[in-house]
Amino acid sequence: MPFNRNHIFNLSVSAAIIPFLLFLAIFCFPVSTHAISKLGCFGAAAAEYAVPGLGYAITRQWDKAIVFGGTRWVALSHYYESSQSEYYQEEADDIYEEIDADDSESGNPVTRVSLTKETWNAQYWGNLYGNVLFMSWGDFYENGCQSNTETYSYLLSPFRIDHFYKKWQFWLPVVLVMGNYAYNDDETEVEYYLYRGLKESDLRRDSFSEYYMVGVGEEMFFRGVVQHFFFDLLKDNWQLSPGASRHLSILGASTVFALAHSGAGFTASPATAFLFGLYEGYVYHPSLDEFDLMTAIAIHAWWDILVTYTILNSAKFHEEEEIEVPIMKIGFRF
Question: Which spans in the chain are helix H?
């Protein structure tokens, strides 16, 4: 059954102090022997947070220091440049405006989104920075800072259809979102007002890579680190049964995931994020002896991508007149 567009959200969260403090607690909390063995990795993980690429350099993973550390340096530079502009919109209330049906020209409720190019760029690069950091933390925790190629495999998860094509757990949410797009009867209108040279084509170009990385980064952190940590803690330290530890770790990680979401704009509300986290938790840990991070990443990435383009395809766009731009302009991010 199709559901109202106001009830579907992008499940994205920027790197913030709460995930960082949680990360510190996980690495510093004395749990099982397995987890204690990871404490030696804490210094490198903290260094990676402080200086992009340093943690990987310390552990002699030079390829990741260049690829992931370099990506974060580029993202940080662009984010700083855009966020320092006088045209950067810092508050969500400056971007999103809800108009009641009685006050709109069409007689329908309207969500009005006002964006400058500087704000859009800051959002894009800030999300990229945060999600590559989440991905790196997942790498450090899962592999104890040892050299590995698993992180590259996870990075390709949304396209690993050979891995999840027989799993109904992947297809159920994807078909649900596609059905909402095909049969959407929601009367709420979305209008974008784009300023400072920002165009509809910029939003369509950037959204795919932005929300692709949201799926990778958030799942590697909230499922691969937080949920797995809770499972080890409950099973090995608190001596709970593996079954109880599995269910409680999913509940705990989903709660943390919910607290990391504010519901601002089109992002998920805490309640929605909690329910999505429960679903992803069981996808990630489908049985006592199995962990499937790849399918969880694929679900999250495609959910966000499909929801985003559902909104964009049904929205109305109003662009400001052209501003002066260089003669040559590169049409892609990387």
Answer: 17-28, 33-36, 42-50, 54-58, 62-64, 70-83, 117-143, 150-155, 161-164, 168-182, 200-221, 228-232, 242-259, 270-284, 293-314
**Which tens digits make up the pLDDT trace of 110-129?**
999 999 999 999 999 999 99
- Enter the DSSP assignment of 235: I
The helix/strand/coil state of 325 is coil
Q: What are the pLDDT digits (tens) for 37-92?
A: 455 588 888 899 999 999 999 999 999 999 999 999 999 999 999 999 999 999 88
In which region does residue 109 sit, left (phi positive, over 0), alpha (psi from -120 to 50) or beta (all else)?
A: beta
Helical packing angle, 117-143 and 200-221, nearest 10°: 20
- The DSSP 8-state label assigned to residue 290 in this structure reads B
Per-residue tokens: 83:
């966020």
Domain ranges for the chain, please list them.
Answer: 5-41+88-120+127-319
List C-alpha distances in Å: 207 to 92, 179, 202, 310.
18, 20, 8, 12
Q: Whole-model pTM?
A: 0.87
Phi, psi of 34 (to 5 degrees): -60, -45
Q: Report the pLDDT value the prediction gives residue 320, as an integer from 0 to 100.
A: 83
Q: What is the pLDDT of residues 221-250, one digit of tens each?
A: 999 999 999 999 999 989 999 999 999 999
Cα distance between residue 74 and residue 84, in whole Å:
16
96: Cβ contacts below 8 Å, ≥ 6 apart: 111, 112, 113, 264, 265
